[in-house]
Design brief:
This protein is mainly α and about 525 residues long. The protein has 22 helices and 2 strands. It has a two-stranded antiparallel sheet. α5 runs antiparallel to α9, α7 runs antiparallel to α16 and α16 packs antiparallel against α17. The longest helix is centred in the C-terminal third of the chain and has 33 residues. The chain is globular and about 70 Å long. The structure holds beta-D-glucopyranose. Beta-D-glucopyranose binds next to α7, α15, α19 and α20.
Protein backbone atom coordinates (compact mmCIF):
# COMPACT_ATOMS: atom_id res chain seq x y z
CA UNK A 1 0.00 0.00 0.00
CA UNK A 2 1.57 3.15 -1.22
CA UNK A 3 2.64 5.09 1.85
CA UNK A 4 -0.84 6.16 2.95
CA UNK A 5 -1.80 7.79 6.18
CA UNK A 6 -2.89 5.15 8.69
CA UNK A 7 -5.00 4.99 11.81
CA UNK A 8 -5.61 2.06 14.11
CA UNK A 9 -8.77 0.08 13.48
CA UNK A 10 -11.54 1.09 15.81
CA UNK A 11 -10.49 4.72 16.07
CA UNK A 12 -12.51 7.07 13.99
CA UNK A 13 -10.96 10.33 13.06
CA UNK A 14 -13.20 13.34 13.57
CA UNK A 15 -12.24 16.45 11.66
CA UNK A 16 -13.13 19.80 13.20
CA UNK A 17 -15.65 21.96 11.43
CA UNK A 18 -19.33 22.08 10.55
CA UNK A 19 -21.57 22.24 7.54
CA UNK A 20 -21.33 25.89 6.54
CA UNK A 21 -24.08 27.56 4.55
CA UNK A 22 -21.52 28.06 1.79
CA UNK A 23 -20.86 24.31 1.51
CA UNK A 24 -24.57 23.55 1.81
CA UNK A 25 -25.40 25.97 -0.99
CA UNK A 26 -22.68 24.48 -3.21
CA UNK A 27 -24.05 20.99 -2.56
CA UNK A 28 -27.58 22.09 -3.36
CA UNK A 29 -26.54 23.55 -6.70
CA UNK A 30 -24.53 20.43 -7.53
CA UNK A 31 -27.35 18.08 -6.65
CA UNK A 32 -29.41 19.72 -9.40
CA UNK A 33 -27.38 17.31 -11.55
CA UNK A 34 -29.72 14.64 -10.15
CA UNK A 35 -32.68 16.73 -11.23
CA UNK A 36 -31.70 16.66 -14.91
CA UNK A 37 -31.21 12.90 -14.70
CA UNK A 38 -34.62 12.45 -13.07
CA UNK A 39 -36.37 14.79 -15.50
CA UNK A 40 -35.16 12.60 -18.34
CA UNK A 41 -36.31 9.42 -16.72
CA UNK A 42 -39.81 10.80 -16.24
CA UNK A 43 -40.38 12.79 -19.40
CA UNK A 44 -40.07 10.20 -22.19
CA UNK A 45 -42.96 7.94 -21.15
CA UNK A 46 -45.36 10.88 -21.01
CA UNK A 47 -44.59 12.23 -24.44
CA UNK A 48 -44.77 8.78 -26.00
CA UNK A 49 -48.31 8.51 -24.71
CA UNK A 50 -49.33 11.81 -26.39
CA UNK A 51 -51.14 11.34 -29.71
CA UNK A 52 -49.67 14.51 -31.24
CA UNK A 53 -46.15 13.22 -30.58
CA UNK A 54 -46.91 9.74 -31.89
CA UNK A 55 -48.63 10.99 -35.03
CA UNK A 56 -45.63 13.15 -35.89
CA UNK A 57 -42.85 10.66 -35.23
CA UNK A 58 -44.35 7.20 -34.75
CA UNK A 59 -47.59 7.08 -36.77
CA UNK A 60 -47.62 3.27 -36.90
CA UNK A 61 -47.71 3.04 -33.10
CA UNK A 62 -50.62 5.47 -33.00
CA UNK A 63 -52.49 3.44 -35.59
CA UNK A 64 -52.02 0.26 -33.55
CA UNK A 65 -53.13 2.04 -30.41
CA UNK A 66 -56.33 3.26 -32.05
CA UNK A 67 -57.33 -0.30 -32.89
CA UNK A 68 -57.06 -1.54 -29.33
CA UNK A 69 -60.36 -3.40 -29.36
CA UNK A 70 -59.20 -6.10 -31.71
CA UNK A 71 -55.46 -5.94 -31.27
CA UNK A 72 -53.27 -7.47 -28.61
CA UNK A 73 -52.98 -4.95 -25.73
CA UNK A 74 -49.59 -6.29 -24.70
CA UNK A 75 -48.09 -5.35 -28.07
CA UNK A 76 -49.60 -1.87 -28.56
CA UNK A 77 -46.38 0.00 -27.94
CA UNK A 78 -43.98 -2.56 -29.34
CA UNK A 79 -41.91 -0.47 -31.74
CA UNK A 80 -38.12 -0.69 -31.94
CA UNK A 81 -37.90 2.95 -32.93
CA UNK A 82 -40.07 4.04 -30.02
CA UNK A 83 -37.98 2.11 -27.48
CA UNK A 84 -34.82 3.45 -29.08
CA UNK A 85 -36.09 6.98 -28.44
CA UNK A 86 -36.23 6.14 -24.71
CA UNK A 87 -33.19 3.89 -24.43
CA UNK A 88 -30.56 5.65 -26.55
CA UNK A 89 -30.05 8.24 -23.82
CA UNK A 90 -28.85 5.56 -21.42
CA UNK A 91 -26.58 4.00 -24.00
CA UNK A 92 -24.91 7.40 -24.44
CA UNK A 93 -24.69 7.76 -20.66
CA UNK A 94 -23.13 4.28 -20.47
CA UNK A 95 -20.46 5.27 -23.01
CA UNK A 96 -19.73 8.66 -21.45
CA UNK A 97 -19.44 7.22 -17.94
CA UNK A 98 -16.29 5.39 -19.09
CA UNK A 99 -14.56 8.68 -19.95
CA UNK A 100 -16.14 10.63 -17.13
CA UNK A 101 -13.88 8.99 -14.56
CA UNK A 102 -10.65 10.24 -16.09
CA UNK A 103 -12.15 13.65 -16.93
CA UNK A 104 -13.33 14.22 -13.35
CA UNK A 105 -9.87 13.21 -12.22
CA UNK A 106 -7.92 15.36 -14.65
CA UNK A 107 -10.10 18.45 -15.05
CA UNK A 108 -11.91 18.38 -11.74
CA UNK A 109 -15.53 17.81 -10.74
CA UNK A 110 -16.60 21.40 -11.39
CA UNK A 111 -15.55 21.53 -15.05
CA UNK A 112 -17.11 18.11 -15.61
CA UNK A 113 -20.40 19.37 -14.18
CA UNK A 114 -20.31 22.56 -16.30
CA UNK A 115 -19.54 20.46 -19.40
CA UNK A 116 -22.23 17.91 -18.54
CA UNK A 117 -24.82 20.69 -18.06
CA UNK A 118 -23.89 22.35 -21.38
CA UNK A 119 -24.11 19.13 -23.36
CA UNK A 120 -27.43 18.44 -21.70
CA UNK A 121 -28.66 21.92 -22.63
CA UNK A 122 -27.81 21.31 -26.30
CA UNK A 123 -29.77 18.02 -26.15
CA UNK A 124 -32.81 19.72 -24.60
CA UNK A 125 -32.84 22.39 -27.32
CA UNK A 126 -32.49 19.87 -30.17
CA UNK A 127 -35.35 17.82 -28.72
CA UNK A 128 -37.58 20.84 -28.18
CA UNK A 129 -37.29 21.90 -31.83
CA UNK A 130 -37.09 18.37 -33.32
CA UNK A 131 -38.48 18.09 -36.83
CA UNK A 132 -37.83 14.39 -37.38
CA UNK A 133 -36.96 11.17 -35.57
CA UNK A 134 -33.24 11.62 -36.26
CA UNK A 135 -33.23 14.96 -34.43
CA UNK A 136 -35.07 13.35 -31.54
CA UNK A 137 -32.50 10.57 -31.28
CA UNK A 138 -29.51 12.93 -31.64
CA UNK A 139 -30.98 15.17 -28.93
CA UNK A 140 -31.39 12.16 -26.63
CA UNK A 141 -27.75 11.17 -27.25
CA UNK A 142 -26.62 14.63 -26.08
CA UNK A 143 -28.84 14.36 -23.01
CA UNK A 144 -27.32 10.96 -22.24
CA UNK A 145 -23.76 12.23 -22.52
CA UNK A 146 -24.66 14.98 -20.06
CA UNK A 147 -26.27 12.49 -17.67
CA UNK A 148 -23.19 10.23 -17.76
CA UNK A 149 -20.88 13.09 -16.81
CA UNK A 150 -23.07 14.45 -14.06
CA UNK A 151 -23.75 11.03 -12.50
CA UNK A 152 -20.02 10.59 -12.11
CA UNK A 153 -19.12 14.11 -11.03
CA UNK A 154 -22.00 15.14 -8.75
CA UNK A 155 -21.77 12.32 -6.18
CA UNK A 156 -18.01 12.89 -5.96
CA UNK A 157 -18.47 16.63 -5.59
CA UNK A 158 -21.02 16.11 -2.82
CA UNK A 159 -18.82 13.60 -1.02
CA UNK A 160 -15.86 15.95 -1.09
CA UNK A 161 -17.69 19.12 -0.02
CA UNK A 162 -19.71 17.48 2.75
CA UNK A 163 -18.31 17.05 6.22
CA UNK A 164 -17.67 13.35 6.82
CA UNK A 165 -20.50 12.98 9.36
CA UNK A 166 -23.31 13.77 6.95
CA UNK A 167 -21.88 12.29 3.77
CA UNK A 168 -24.49 9.49 3.65
CA UNK A 169 -27.41 11.89 3.94
CA UNK A 170 -25.97 14.12 1.23
CA UNK A 171 -25.43 11.12 -1.00
CA UNK A 172 -29.12 10.28 -0.71
CA UNK A 173 -29.92 13.89 -1.56
CA UNK A 174 -28.68 13.13 -5.07
CA UNK A 175 -31.24 10.31 -5.32
CA UNK A 176 -33.79 12.66 -3.79
CA UNK A 177 -33.22 15.14 -6.61
CA UNK A 178 -33.60 12.31 -9.13
CA UNK A 179 -37.03 11.53 -7.70
CA UNK A 180 -37.94 15.25 -7.68
CA UNK A 181 -36.93 15.40 -11.36
CA UNK A 182 -39.10 12.39 -12.22
CA UNK A 183 -42.07 13.84 -10.34
CA UNK A 184 -41.72 17.27 -11.96
CA UNK A 185 -41.49 15.61 -15.39
CA UNK A 186 -44.73 13.70 -14.78
CA UNK A 187 -46.44 16.93 -13.66
CA UNK A 188 -45.17 18.79 -16.72
CA UNK A 189 -46.45 16.00 -18.98
CA UNK A 190 -49.82 16.13 -17.29
CA UNK A 191 -49.99 19.88 -17.86
CA UNK A 192 -48.71 19.97 -21.43
CA UNK A 193 -50.89 17.09 -22.65
CA UNK A 194 -53.82 19.52 -22.57
CA UNK A 195 -52.16 21.80 -25.09
CA UNK A 196 -53.29 21.27 -28.65
CA UNK A 197 -50.84 20.59 -31.45
CA UNK A 198 -47.11 20.05 -31.16
CA UNK A 199 -46.53 22.67 -28.50
CA UNK A 200 -47.34 20.24 -25.66
CA UNK A 201 -44.64 17.65 -26.27
CA UNK A 202 -42.20 20.35 -27.41
CA UNK A 203 -42.59 22.07 -24.06
CA UNK A 204 -42.18 18.77 -22.19
CA UNK A 205 -38.93 17.97 -23.98
CA UNK A 206 -37.64 21.54 -24.18
CA UNK A 207 -38.23 22.33 -20.50
CA UNK A 208 -35.30 20.02 -19.72
CA UNK A 209 -33.31 23.15 -20.55
CA UNK A 210 -34.36 24.74 -17.23
CA UNK A 211 -32.51 22.37 -14.87
CA UNK A 212 -29.69 22.23 -17.44
CA UNK A 213 -29.23 26.01 -17.27
CA UNK A 214 -29.35 25.97 -13.47
CA UNK A 215 -26.66 23.28 -13.32
CA UNK A 216 -24.44 24.86 -15.97
CA UNK A 217 -24.59 28.40 -14.60
CA UNK A 218 -24.56 27.20 -10.98
CA UNK A 219 -21.61 24.85 -11.51
CA UNK A 220 -19.74 27.63 -13.31
CA UNK A 221 -19.83 29.74 -10.16
CA UNK A 222 -19.27 26.82 -7.81
CA UNK A 223 -15.90 26.48 -6.16
CA UNK A 224 -13.77 23.49 -7.01
CA UNK A 225 -13.38 20.94 -4.23
CA UNK A 226 -10.21 21.08 -2.12
CA UNK A 227 -9.40 17.59 -3.42
CA UNK A 228 -9.48 18.77 -7.03
CA UNK A 229 -7.31 21.76 -6.13
CA UNK A 230 -4.71 19.56 -4.48
CA UNK A 231 -4.69 17.33 -7.54
CA UNK A 232 -3.99 20.42 -9.65
CA UNK A 233 -1.19 21.50 -7.28
CA UNK A 234 -3.12 24.56 -6.04
CA UNK A 235 -2.24 23.81 -2.44
CA UNK A 236 -2.78 27.27 -0.92
CA UNK A 237 -6.11 27.66 -2.65
CA UNK A 238 -7.09 24.23 -1.34
CA UNK A 239 -6.31 25.26 2.23
CA UNK A 240 -8.34 28.47 1.91
CA UNK A 241 -11.28 26.56 0.44
CA UNK A 242 -11.17 23.94 3.18
CA UNK A 243 -11.28 26.71 5.81
CA UNK A 244 -14.22 28.28 4.07
CA UNK A 245 -16.32 25.12 3.67
CA UNK A 246 -15.59 23.78 7.16
CA UNK A 247 -16.06 27.16 8.86
CA UNK A 248 -12.87 26.83 10.94
CA UNK A 249 -9.15 27.56 10.74
CA UNK A 250 -8.42 24.22 12.34
CA UNK A 251 -8.13 22.26 9.12
CA UNK A 252 -4.57 20.95 9.26
CA UNK A 253 -5.51 17.38 10.10
CA UNK A 254 -8.00 17.05 7.28
CA UNK A 255 -5.75 18.90 4.86
CA UNK A 256 -2.82 16.57 5.54
CA UNK A 257 -5.04 13.56 5.02
CA UNK A 258 -6.29 14.97 1.73
CA UNK A 259 -2.74 15.48 0.54
CA UNK A 260 -1.72 11.97 1.66
CA UNK A 261 -4.80 10.49 0.04
CA UNK A 262 -4.15 12.34 -3.18
CA UNK A 263 -0.52 11.18 -3.33
CA UNK A 264 -1.63 7.68 -2.63
CA UNK A 265 -4.20 7.66 -5.39
CA UNK A 266 -1.74 9.16 -7.86
CA UNK A 267 0.71 6.39 -7.02
CA UNK A 268 -1.75 3.87 -8.41
CA UNK A 269 -1.06 3.87 -12.14
CA UNK A 270 -3.98 1.75 -13.19
CA UNK A 271 -6.87 1.71 -10.70
CA UNK A 272 -8.88 -0.64 -12.93
CA UNK A 273 -6.09 -3.22 -12.84
CA UNK A 274 -5.68 -2.72 -9.09
CA UNK A 275 -9.39 -3.42 -8.65
CA UNK A 276 -8.88 -6.86 -10.19
CA UNK A 277 -6.59 -7.80 -7.28
CA UNK A 278 -7.87 -10.58 -5.02
CA UNK A 279 -8.33 -8.38 -1.95
CA UNK A 280 -10.73 -6.11 -3.86
CA UNK A 281 -12.95 -9.01 -4.98
CA UNK A 282 -15.95 -7.98 -2.84
CA UNK A 283 -15.77 -4.39 -4.13
CA UNK A 284 -15.42 -5.55 -7.73
CA UNK A 285 -18.41 -7.87 -7.41
CA UNK A 286 -20.54 -5.24 -5.65
CA UNK A 287 -19.63 -2.53 -8.18
CA UNK A 288 -21.22 -4.66 -10.90
CA UNK A 289 -23.90 -6.64 -9.08
CA UNK A 290 -25.56 -3.87 -7.02
CA UNK A 291 -26.33 -1.48 -9.90
CA UNK A 292 -27.30 -4.38 -12.20
CA UNK A 293 -29.74 -5.81 -9.66
CA UNK A 294 -31.09 -2.32 -8.98
CA UNK A 295 -32.17 -2.13 -12.60
CA UNK A 296 -33.44 -5.73 -12.67
CA UNK A 297 -36.06 -4.77 -10.10
CA UNK A 298 -37.90 -3.51 -13.17
CA UNK A 299 -38.31 -0.03 -11.61
CA UNK A 300 -37.77 1.73 -14.90
CA UNK A 301 -40.60 -0.14 -16.53
CA UNK A 302 -42.72 2.01 -14.24
CA UNK A 303 -40.56 5.16 -14.36
CA UNK A 304 -40.20 5.23 -18.16
CA UNK A 305 -43.31 3.51 -19.28
CA UNK A 306 -45.90 4.21 -16.55
CA UNK A 307 -48.18 6.24 -18.83
CA UNK A 308 -47.80 3.65 -21.59
CA UNK A 309 -48.45 0.85 -19.10
CA UNK A 310 -51.54 2.61 -17.81
CA UNK A 311 -52.79 3.10 -21.34
CA UNK A 312 -52.22 -0.60 -21.93
CA UNK A 313 -54.59 -1.41 -19.07
CA UNK A 314 -57.20 0.84 -20.57
CA UNK A 315 -56.76 4.35 -19.14
CA UNK A 316 -57.13 7.42 -21.38
CA UNK A 317 -54.19 9.79 -21.90
CA UNK A 318 -55.09 12.13 -19.03
CA UNK A 319 -55.80 9.34 -16.55
CA UNK A 320 -52.56 7.62 -17.53
CA UNK A 321 -50.55 10.77 -17.01
CA UNK A 322 -52.31 11.42 -13.69
CA UNK A 323 -51.47 7.89 -12.53
CA UNK A 324 -47.85 8.54 -13.47
CA UNK A 325 -47.93 11.70 -11.32
CA UNK A 326 -49.18 9.54 -8.44
CA UNK A 327 -46.43 6.92 -8.82
CA UNK A 328 -43.89 9.77 -9.11
CA UNK A 329 -45.18 11.25 -5.86
CA UNK A 330 -45.03 7.89 -4.05
CA UNK A 331 -41.45 7.52 -5.31
CA UNK A 332 -40.47 10.93 -3.95
CA UNK A 333 -42.22 10.58 -0.60
CA UNK A 334 -40.88 7.08 0.05
CA UNK A 335 -37.31 8.22 -0.53
CA UNK A 336 -37.72 10.39 2.60
CA UNK A 337 -38.39 7.22 4.58
CA UNK A 338 -35.00 5.96 3.49
CA UNK A 339 -33.31 9.19 4.54
CA UNK A 340 -34.91 8.91 7.98
CA UNK A 341 -34.24 5.22 8.59
CA UNK A 342 -31.06 4.26 6.76
CA UNK A 343 -28.70 5.25 9.55
CA UNK A 344 -30.99 4.01 12.29
CA UNK A 345 -32.13 0.58 11.05
CA UNK A 346 -29.26 -0.08 8.66
CA UNK A 347 -29.00 -0.95 5.00
CA UNK A 348 -29.69 -4.68 5.13
CA UNK A 349 -33.11 -4.47 6.72
CA UNK A 350 -34.25 -1.92 4.12
CA UNK A 351 -32.84 -4.04 1.30
CA UNK A 352 -34.50 -7.21 2.61
CA UNK A 353 -37.89 -5.69 3.43
CA UNK A 354 -37.90 -3.78 0.14
CA UNK A 355 -37.05 -6.95 -1.81
CA UNK A 356 -39.87 -8.97 -0.25
CA UNK A 357 -42.42 -6.17 -0.73
CA UNK A 358 -41.41 -5.65 -4.36
CA UNK A 359 -41.71 -9.38 -5.08
CA UNK A 360 -45.22 -9.63 -3.64
CA UNK A 361 -46.40 -6.46 -5.38
CA UNK A 362 -45.03 -7.55 -8.79
CA UNK A 363 -46.66 -10.97 -8.52
CA UNK A 364 -50.01 -9.34 -7.69
CA UNK A 365 -49.71 -6.83 -10.57
CA UNK A 366 -48.87 -9.63 -13.03
CA UNK A 367 -51.74 -11.76 -11.77
CA UNK A 368 -54.27 -8.91 -11.92
CA UNK A 369 -53.30 -8.07 -15.50
CA UNK A 370 -53.13 -11.74 -16.53
CA UNK A 371 -56.58 -12.37 -15.03
CA UNK A 372 -58.22 -9.92 -17.44
CA UNK A 373 -55.98 -10.06 -20.51
CA UNK A 374 -54.88 -13.71 -20.34
CA UNK A 375 -52.26 -14.70 -22.87
CA UNK A 376 -54.09 -13.24 -25.86
CA UNK A 377 -53.92 -9.66 -24.61
CA UNK A 378 -57.55 -9.15 -25.48
CA UNK A 379 -60.01 -8.04 -22.91
CA UNK A 380 -61.30 -5.13 -20.94
CA UNK A 381 -60.21 -3.87 -17.54
CA UNK A 382 -62.90 -2.02 -15.56
CA UNK A 383 -61.94 1.27 -13.86
CA UNK A 384 -61.96 0.10 -10.25
CA UNK A 385 -59.97 -2.98 -11.17
CA UNK A 386 -57.40 -0.77 -12.93
CA UNK A 387 -57.19 1.42 -9.82
CA UNK A 388 -56.21 -1.69 -7.84
CA UNK A 389 -53.42 -2.32 -10.32
CA UNK A 390 -52.18 1.25 -9.84
CA UNK A 391 -52.25 0.76 -6.04
CA UNK A 392 -50.04 -2.34 -6.26
CA UNK A 393 -47.70 -0.56 -8.63
CA UNK A 394 -47.42 2.19 -6.00
CA UNK A 395 -46.65 -0.43 -3.31
CA UNK A 396 -43.87 -1.72 -5.55
CA UNK A 397 -42.51 1.79 -6.21
CA UNK A 398 -42.57 2.67 -2.49
CA UNK A 399 -40.54 -0.44 -1.64
CA UNK A 400 -37.97 0.40 -4.32
CA UNK A 401 -37.78 4.02 -3.21
CA UNK A 402 -36.77 3.21 0.37
CA UNK A 403 -34.49 0.33 -0.53
CA UNK A 404 -32.75 -0.37 -3.83
CA UNK A 405 -33.26 3.17 -5.17
CA UNK A 406 -31.07 5.16 -2.78
CA UNK A 407 -29.08 2.20 -1.46
CA UNK A 408 -28.17 1.11 -4.97
CA UNK A 409 -26.04 4.28 -5.08
CA UNK A 410 -25.20 4.76 -1.40
CA UNK A 411 -23.78 1.33 -0.56
CA UNK A 412 -21.30 1.22 -3.47
CA UNK A 413 -20.12 4.74 -2.60
CA UNK A 414 -19.26 3.73 0.95
CA UNK A 415 -17.47 0.44 0.34
CA UNK A 416 -14.76 1.50 -2.12
CA UNK A 417 -11.36 2.25 -0.61
CA UNK A 418 -9.69 5.35 -1.94
CA UNK A 419 -7.12 3.65 -4.15
CA UNK A 420 -9.81 2.05 -6.33
CA UNK A 421 -12.65 4.49 -5.77
CA UNK A 422 -12.70 6.34 -9.09
CA UNK A 423 -12.47 3.08 -11.05
CA UNK A 424 -15.12 1.30 -9.00
CA UNK A 425 -17.47 4.30 -9.09
CA UNK A 426 -17.26 4.49 -12.85
CA UNK A 427 -17.98 0.75 -13.13
CA UNK A 428 -21.04 1.30 -10.92
CA UNK A 429 -22.32 4.15 -13.09
CA UNK A 430 -21.61 2.20 -16.30
CA UNK A 431 -23.31 -0.98 -15.06
CA UNK A 432 -26.31 1.05 -13.95
CA UNK A 433 -26.60 2.86 -17.28
CA UNK A 434 -26.04 -0.34 -19.25
CA UNK A 435 -28.94 -2.14 -17.56
CA UNK A 436 -31.10 0.98 -17.68
CA UNK A 437 -30.51 0.97 -21.43
CA UNK A 438 -31.29 -2.74 -21.77
CA UNK A 439 -34.55 -2.52 -19.81
CA UNK A 440 -35.68 0.58 -21.73
CA UNK A 441 -34.99 -1.17 -25.03
CA UNK A 442 -36.46 -4.56 -24.28
CA UNK A 443 -39.47 -3.77 -22.11
CA UNK A 444 -41.96 -3.21 -24.97
CA UNK A 445 -40.97 -6.37 -26.94
CA UNK A 446 -40.75 -8.37 -23.70
CA UNK A 447 -44.22 -7.28 -22.62
CA UNK A 448 -45.42 -8.34 -26.07
CA UNK A 449 -43.92 -11.83 -25.79
CA UNK A 450 -43.85 -12.56 -22.01
CA UNK A 451 -47.26 -10.89 -21.53
CA UNK A 452 -48.28 -10.69 -17.85
CA UNK A 453 -45.44 -13.14 -17.13
CA UNK A 454 -43.05 -10.19 -17.50
CA UNK A 455 -44.02 -9.11 -13.99
CA UNK A 456 -43.21 -12.62 -12.70
CA UNK A 457 -39.84 -12.34 -14.46
CA UNK A 458 -38.98 -9.22 -12.45
CA UNK A 459 -40.40 -10.83 -9.29
CA UNK A 460 -37.96 -13.72 -9.80
CA UNK A 461 -35.08 -11.24 -9.95
CA UNK A 462 -36.33 -9.63 -6.76
CA UNK A 463 -36.16 -13.01 -5.03
CA UNK A 464 -32.60 -13.48 -6.31
CA UNK A 465 -31.47 -10.03 -5.13
CA UNK A 466 -33.02 -10.52 -1.70
CA UNK A 467 -31.20 -13.84 -1.28
CA UNK A 468 -28.01 -12.19 -2.52
CA UNK A 469 -28.24 -9.42 0.07
CA UNK A 470 -29.03 -11.91 2.81
CA UNK A 471 -25.94 -14.02 2.14
CA UNK A 472 -23.40 -11.70 0.59
CA UNK A 473 -23.91 -8.10 1.66
CA UNK A 474 -22.68 -7.28 5.17
CA UNK A 475 -24.14 -4.37 7.13
CA UNK A 476 -22.24 -1.15 6.45
CA UNK A 477 -24.22 1.18 8.70
CA UNK A 478 -22.07 3.32 10.99
CA UNK A 479 -18.79 1.89 9.72
CA UNK A 480 -16.27 4.51 8.65
CA UNK A 481 -15.11 3.93 5.09
CA UNK A 482 -11.53 3.51 6.24
CA UNK A 483 -12.53 0.57 8.41
CA UNK A 484 -14.62 -1.16 5.78
CA UNK A 485 -12.03 -3.85 5.03
CA UNK A 486 -12.66 -5.34 8.49
CA UNK A 487 -16.26 -5.99 7.52
CA UNK A 488 -15.20 -8.24 4.65
CA UNK A 489 -12.52 -9.90 6.74
CA UNK A 490 -15.11 -11.15 9.20
CA UNK A 491 -17.67 -12.16 6.57
CA UNK A 492 -18.30 -15.92 6.10
CA UNK A 493 -17.72 -15.75 2.32
CA UNK A 494 -15.56 -12.70 1.61
CA UNK A 495 -13.02 -13.65 4.28
CA UNK A 496 -11.63 -16.07 1.68
CA UNK A 497 -10.55 -13.10 -0.41
CA UNK A 498 -9.89 -10.43 2.18
CA UNK A 499 -7.69 -11.58 5.01
CA UNK A 500 -4.67 -10.65 7.10
CA UNK A 501 -2.34 -11.89 4.36
CA UNK A 502 -3.40 -9.23 1.93
CA UNK A 503 -4.74 -6.47 4.19
CA UNK A 504 -2.61 -4.77 6.85
CA UNK A 505 -3.99 -6.05 10.10
CA UNK A 506 -4.55 -3.46 12.77
CA UNK A 507 -4.08 -0.59 10.36
CA UNK A 508 -6.13 0.60 7.51
CA UNK A 509 -5.70 3.43 5.13
CA UNK A 510 -7.41 6.73 5.46
CA UNK A 511 -9.81 7.06 2.63
CA UNK A 512 -11.73 10.11 3.60
CA UNK A 513 -12.01 11.55 0.17
CA UNK A 514 -13.41 10.49 -3.14
CA UNK A 515 -11.18 10.81 -6.13
C1 LIG B 1 -32.26 4.58 -10.51
C2 LIG B 1 -33.05 5.02 -11.70
C3 LIG B 1 -34.51 5.05 -11.33
C4 LIG B 1 -34.71 5.96 -10.13
C5 LIG B 1 -36.16 5.96 -9.67
C6 LIG B 1 -32.52 5.52 -9.37
O1 LIG B 1 -31.82 5.11 -8.25
O2 LIG B 1 -30.88 4.53 -10.80
O3 LIG B 1 -32.82 4.15 -12.77
O4 LIG B 1 -35.29 5.51 -12.40
O5 LIG B 1 -33.90 5.54 -9.07
O6 LIG B 1 -36.32 6.83 -8.62
Amino acid sequence: MAGGHVIPVGETKIYPGRLTSYALFACMVASFGGLIFGYDIGISGGVTSMDTFLSKFFPKVLEKEKHVIDSNQYCQFNSVLLSTFTSVLYFAAFVSSFFASSITRRLGRKITMVGGGLIFLVGAIINGVAANVLMLIVGRIFLGLGVGFSSQAVPLYLAEMAPMKIRGTLNISFQMMITVGIFVAHLVNYGTSNINGDLGWRLSLGLAAVPAIIVTVGAFFLPNTPNSMIECNQTEKARTMLREIRGTDDIDLEYEDLVAASKQSQAIKDPFKTLLGRKYRPQLVMSIVIPSLQQLTGINVVMFYAPVLFKTIGFGTQASLMSAVITGFVNLASTFISVLTVDRFGRRILFLEGGVQMTIAQIIVGTLIGWKFGTTGMGYIPKTYAIFIVIFICIFVAAFAWSWGPLGWLVPSEIYPLEVRSAAQSITVSANMFWTYVIAQIFPPMLCSFKFGLFYFFAAWEVIMTVFVYWFLPETKGIPIEEMQTVWKSHWFWAKYVNDDNVDSGHVEISNVSV
